[in-house]
Amino acid sequence: MKGPTESFPVAANRELGNAQLRSNLGNATSTIRAKRARVVEELPDWEALRDAGSAIKADVLANLDTYLLQFEQALTAAGATVHWARDGAEACAVVAEVARAHGADEVVKVKSLTTDEIELNATLAAQGIHALETDFAELILQLDGDWSSHILVPAIHRNRTEIRDLFQRTIAPDITSDEPGVLAEAARVYLRERFLNAKVGVSGANFGVAETGTLCVVESEGNGRMCTTLPPVLVSIIGIEKLVPSFADLEVFLQLLPRSSTGERMNPYTSLWTGVTEGDGPQELHVVLLDNGRTRVLEDEVGRQALHCIRCSACLNVCPVYSRTGGHAYGSVYPGPIGAILTPQLIGIENAPSLPFASSLCGACYEVCPVKIDIPRVLLHLREKSVDAVGGRTERAAMSGVGWVFGRAWRLRLAQRIGRVLQRPFVRDGVIRRLPPPLSAWTDSRDLRPIAPAHPSDENSGNDDE
Ligand code: SF4
């Protein structure tokens, strides 16, 4: 999985200059937030559902080895072939091998963050196999060589006029209108034939049921249903943390997920399939169980709760940082608060050290998370790890200097006296707005209150070492 190529503050600063992005984000996130609040309000047992979701996920992670073997056994008994993939390269190799074995130079894909995480499309393209995105927003991004900026609404940063112009250049030269219905129809016409001719479909999975070997995909457009039913061969890639123990557990998550993601009572399409059924759907099913850093995350007792995530995106929609910077600033397929805690753990904190700092720690993400992931706690935990891993010598020296000053009252008083003299040229109307480097790192984005005048009792205190 690719990590950020630049630090979050640098990328965020650039994205903040995009007024169109901020306006799109503001509209979309406030609409989804309001819808979510309405449908959550309807459920008297919402908090109990959150507790149940959290408990089920904790149980799965605590007994993952058992559930994975049970899942494999159930899948095999139902006629599927199970592959274990340590990393993205191994998972991609399975898909390429299956496509080659069936003479397919194109596969049709359901929207899947897991396949984005392992860069499946690029890997297949390098082997002459085109992975066609069939989700409307993902298709837009693919046609324009762009990438997702929101878990649920990947093209949130594009407007409909841009999309019409893109379609004119690519799949629908005659299109003139930017009406949503016309744009959707153009994509539908383009995709329909590809669905019917596809030899291989590729999907992720929202859930895998350990006791039955059932896979579950929830979606809104019906393209997922096409991909998982029309091609004679299907490959489903599922992160090992996506299991639930029993079929009955789906009841909890199929209430939590749609309400938290799209603000709907249920998803328009919920597809469930168990192995292979003669004469009905794909006659060959491959299931790839993907690790790709997850067992390393599991080792961290605080950080492992990031693996509870059901990718609803509710935390993105309430985050004051995400709603201003958008998803690209996070430099990975997992943006927003969940990206800030999941990406550094999957790829190693040393490869994304600034992401845990991409938060004001307001706690809104924790309040909306349907599976009660304590994101602020994990952020603080990862900040500590980040400082340990890559913290600069200057920062350490500064902190130990501050510790030394605070260690004795007389030192603090002396430092304050010196500070009052040094700050004089910078105080305007009772506020410090600009300081020279390196202190400008603070005043570039916020004002600083000056050191308060000395209290008479401080100035008269003679005891230097209390
Ligand atoms: S961390 Fe929670 S709120 Fe955020 S995407 Fe995951 S499940 Fe949803």
Descriptive notes:
- Helix 3 (46-62) packs across helix 12 (250-261), helix 9 crosses helix 10 (180-197) and helix 16 (336-347) packs across helix 18 (375-390).
- This protein is α/β, with parallel strands linked by helices and 466 residues long.
- Among the domains are: 43-292, Rossmann fold; 409-460, no CATH class.
- Strand 11 and strand 12 (431-432) form a beta hairpin.
- The chain contains 22 helices and 12 strands.
- A 6-stranded parallel β-sheet has the order 1-10-7-4-2-3, with helices on both faces. Strands 8-5-6-9 form a 4-stranded mixed β-sheet.
- The structure holds iron/sulfur cluster (SF4).
- Iron/sulfur cluster binds next to helix 14.
- Iron/sulfur cluster is lined by residues 260, 309-315, 338, 368-371, 373.
Keywords:
12 strands; 4-stranded mixed sheet; 49% helix
State the gist of this model:
This protein has 466 residues and is α/β, with parallel strands linked by helices.
Can you name the CATH architecture of the domain at 43-292?
Answer: 3-Layer(aba) Sandwich
CATH class of the domain at 43-292: Alpha Beta
Number of strands: 12
What is the rounded distance between the termini? Answer: 54 Å
CATH topology of the domain at 43-292: Rossmann fold
Largest sheet: 6 strands, parallel
> What name goes with the CATH superfamily of the domain at 43-292?
NagB/RpiA/CoA transferase-like
Strand line-up in the sheet with most strands: 1-10-7-4-2-3
Structural class: alpha/beta
Q: What is the percent of helical residues? A: 40-55%
Strand content: 5-15%
Q: Could you say which overall geometry the principal axes of the C-alpha atoms support?
A: globular
Low-confidence stretches: none
Give the radius of gyration: 26 Å
Q: Specify the number of helices.
A: 22
Residue-averaged pLDDT: 94
